[in-house]
Specification:
The complex is a heterodimer of chains A (302) and B (154).
Chain A (H helix, E strand, L loop, with lengths): L1 H20 L4 H21 L4 H5 L7 H7 L8 H4 L3 H20 L3 H18 L6 H13 L9 H25 L3 H5 L2 H6 L16 H21 L3 H21 L3 H10 L6 H21 L7
Helix pairs in contact in A: 2-6, 2-14, 2-15, 6-7, 7-8, 8-9, 9-12, 12-13, 13-14
Chain B lengths: L10 H17 L17 E8 L5 E7 L9 H16 L1 H15 L5 E8 L5 H5 L12 E9 L5
Antiparallel strand pairs in B: 1-2, 1-3, 3-4
Helix pairs in contact in B: 2-3
The chains are: A mainly alpha (302), B alpha+beta (154).
Chain lengths: 302, 154
């Protein structure tokens, strides 16, 4: 009995160590880093025209006013100390550079660290203008600080597992919260989203004659979200859960005006791919990039 | 690194918050994951504002976010939607943010008036049976939330 218990705990300890510290998947993480870095780069780039409106002292929320309205607690920002417009633009440019460098894997840990500090600084500078993709990105940037370019690393393994768990936590808690909502139980939650003209990309009145489709998609979304964190770990279910997730997020991107959110979640699925699968996708993307670059006409030197 | 923590308003959350809050706030990892939950998002909401000059003359009038969206890049509009939702979360917020901003933007403005415009989402059955249309503006709520003078210009 004593030796059984001893074996059990020894195995559990070994599994724990293997799970956290010996599970590095460098190809999956490299693919995720490239996709995530590129996406966040484009997302932050689209924010450029709004930097003065949301973050400058002449914008909607000067620092003193923000402190009056919001309890900032222990939140800090580089822009609390350097609040000039010049500092904001330098910060914005540095953030873009660090994301580009993260995407191509050039000093990835330093790039992730710089991107994390500046991204959080912008979020804290005006918390009224931050939303879903900003919050999710914070976690992934934080995890990527641990991932070096080396193929086998102790920290890389931890970061890989943290990214996987982060995706599961996001879905699981969003799913559980949905179980508290009446519209998710009634089956018309998807309708409430599609009929919200502030969010939907078009008028979806044509879907009203198909209520059963709405009900099934609502319950399907709920079931998938609640069970994703369990089933994605089972080899037989993994591909199906990821494919369903891609379907869901493509659907969201096509019907709602939040494309970056959908792509961010889909790109995060890279951490659930095997190194072989991730490697194949990476080389396919690299070949595509090379073809595009070859097709681009060379600019004459002036 | 933190992955899961109890909700802030729970017993455990209150017990742990003095220790956890500085850490989670500083790192910006205090996020209650609840996309489209518990209900699938608030109905469309807008802030309408009006800047008035001397003798109550209207200097400018607009709404945030603009409708339809004037931006080809939808993320700009999304940020304004989030910003509007924040302002409409508490009435003092819209007044505290927009009044000083608009007073700065319009040096001739003497006072600012703000309204909350809340739309209503038609039910699936109502649209199916032709009683309502999406974005028809029926049951629209338009309520004044602020009527304030610009400091020093009264």
């Amino acid at each position: 009995m004593k030796s059984l218990a001893k074996d059990f705990f020894a195995n559990a300890w070994r599994s724990w160590n293997r799970f956290w510290f010996e599970s590095n998947r460098p190809e999956s993480m490299a693919l995720f880093r490239a996709l995530f870095g590129s996406l966040l780069f484009v997302y932050i780039l689209t924010r450029t025209p709004d930097v003065p409106y949301f973050y400058s002292e002449g914008g909607t929320l000067p620092l003193a006013q923000m402190r009056e309205l919001l309890d900032m607690g222990a939140r800090q920002s580089v822009f609390f100390w350097l609040s000039s417009d010049a500092a904001l633009w330098v910060g914005h440019a540095l953030l873009l550079m660090s994301l580009a460098s993260l995407a191509v894997g050039f000093y990835p840990r330093v790039s992730a660290l710089v991107a994390y500090v500046l991204h959080v600084s912008f979020v804290h500078r005006n918390m009224t203008a931050a939303y879903g993709i900003d919050s999710i990105s914070v976690f992934f940037l934080l995890n990527l600080i641990l991932v070096s370019a080396r193929t086998n690393s102790f920290w890389g393994s931890i970061a890989f597992r943290l990214c996987q768990l982060q995706v599961c936590v996001i879905y699981f808690y969003s799913g559980l919260e949905k179980l508290k909502g009446t519209h998710w139980w009634y089956g018309d939650a998807i309708w409430r989203v599609l009929a919200n003209h502030q969010l939907a990309v078009a008028d979806f009145s044509w879907l009203a004659p198909f209520p059963l489709l709405i009900v099934l998609s609502t319950w399907g979304t709920l079931l998938w979200e609640v069970y994703f964190p369990v089933l994605v770990w089972l080899p037989a279910w993994r591909r199906w859960m990821l494919l369903a997730g891609v379907g869901l997020h493509v659907g969201i991107s096509l019907t709602m005006n939040i494309p970056f959110f959908g792509f961010l979640m889909m790109f995060a699925y890279a951490v659930f791919l095997t190194d072989r699968e991730a490697g194949a996708i990476r080389s396919f993307l690299q070949q595509m990039c090379k073809k595009i670059l070859k097709r681009a006409p060379a600019q004459p030197m002036s | 690194m933190l992955v899961v923590a109890p909700k802030r308003d729970s017993y455990l959350g209150e017990l742990l918050s003095p220790v956890m809050d500085p850490y989670t706030e500083f790192l910006e990892i205090l996020v209650p994951w609840s996309f489209f939950a518990p209900e699938p998002g608030p109905p469309p909401v807008y802030v309408e504002w009006e800047a008035l000059g001397e003798n109550g003359m209207e200097l400018a009038r607009a709404q945030i976010p603009e409708s339809p969206s004037p931006y080809w890049n939808r993320e700009r509009q999304n940020r304004r939607i989030v910003f509007t939702r924040f302002m409409m979360g508490e009435e003092r917020r819209a007044e505290g943010i927009l009044v000083p901003y608009l007073c700065r933007k319009f040096p001739d403005a003497v006072s600012i008036r703000i309204w909350r415009i809340g739309h209503n989402i038609p039910s699936l059955l109502d649209v199916h049976e032709g009683r309502r249309k999406i974005g028809d503006g029926i049951l629209l709520e338009r309520r004044m939330t602020a009527n304030s003078f610009c400091v020093g210009r009264r």
